[in-house]
C-alpha cells in the first residue's frame, strides 16, 4: 500500500498539466490477460460515427442523469509489470507502454470527475502482491490478483490496457476486444471508434474468446490493444509521450461516451 501511495503522489505531481480532484485510490487484486497477436486485419469494418462527433458527458452530468448518489467506478487494469515485460520490439517493452498510457487515461478521467481505480502505478508484478493463492505459478497468481480487485470493489466497467505484436510487420493500429456480452461490446465499439479516428484505421472490435479477463470478470470488460510494437510507425507513436496523451485521450473519450449513453 505504501508503494502505491508514494507512486500515486509522484504521478500526480509529474502530470501537473491536468487538474486532479481529491481522490481515494484502492490497490489490491485484479484481472489479467495478454493478446499477443491481433486478428485486426481480418475484422475491419466501414468507418462509423466517432464518439468525438457525438455528445460527450463529464462526470458531474453523468451523475445527475444516471446515478442519484455516486459516479460510476472505472477499473483500469495495467498489463504486465515487473519481471513480466509483456511483448517487446527494438528495446521497447510493453509493460512500460501500458503503464505510461494507463496513467494518462487515469488522470484524464479523474479530471472529468470520474471515480477511477488503477491497479499498477509502478514497475512491479501484481503476482508479488498475491500472498493468498497457493500456487507455484507466477502467471496464475498474477491472473488471480488482477481478477480479485474487480470483485472486491464495486466497479462498473473494467478496461485492460495492452500493446500488441504480430509476426507481420504490416499489422498496425488499435484493436479492442470484448466479452460475449452486449455492454462489453458497446464499450469496445465506443473505444474502437475513438481510436480509429486517431490512427486513421477502420478496424472492428474482436470477441476475445480465449482470454482470462474477458471470461471471468463479471462486469463489462474490454482489452484495449493500443497498437503493434512490431510495427515501426505504431511503435514510434506509442513511445512518444505527446502521442501517448493523444492515445489516452481517445480511450478516455470512448469510455466517457459509453457511460453517457448506457
Question: What are the defining features of this structure?
Answer:
262 residues, alpha/beta, 6-stranded mixed sheet, 8 helices, globular
Quick take:
The chain has 262 residues and is α/β, with parallel strands linked by helices.
Structural class: alpha/beta
Q: Report the uncertain regions.
A: 1-69, 127-135
Q: Count of helices?
A: 8
**SSE succession:** HHEEEHEHEEHEHEHH
Mean pLDDT over the full residue set:
75
C-alpha termini separation: 34 Å
How many individual β-strands? 8
DSSP helix fraction = 40-55%
Largest sheet composition: 6 strands, mixed
SSE layout and pairings?
Elements: H1 2-14, H2 59-66, E1 73-78, E2 88-89, E3 92-93, H3 94-111, E4 115-118, H4 138-152, E5 157-164, E6 175-178, H5 182-199, E7 206-207, H6 212-216, E8 221-228, H7 232-239, H8 241-261
Helix pairs in contact: 3-8, 5-8
Descriptive account of the structure:
- The model is unreliable at about 1-70 and about 125-135 (pLDDT under 50).
- β2 and β3 (about 90-95) form a beta hairpin.
- Helices cover about 40% and strands about 15% of the residues.
- The strands form two sheets. The protein has a six-stranded mixed β-sheet with strand order 4-1-5-8-6-7. Strands 2-3 form a two-stranded antiparallel ribbon.
- The protein is globular, with a radius of gyration of 17 Å.
- The chain is an alpha/beta fold and about 260 residues long.
- The protein starts with a helix and ends with a helix.
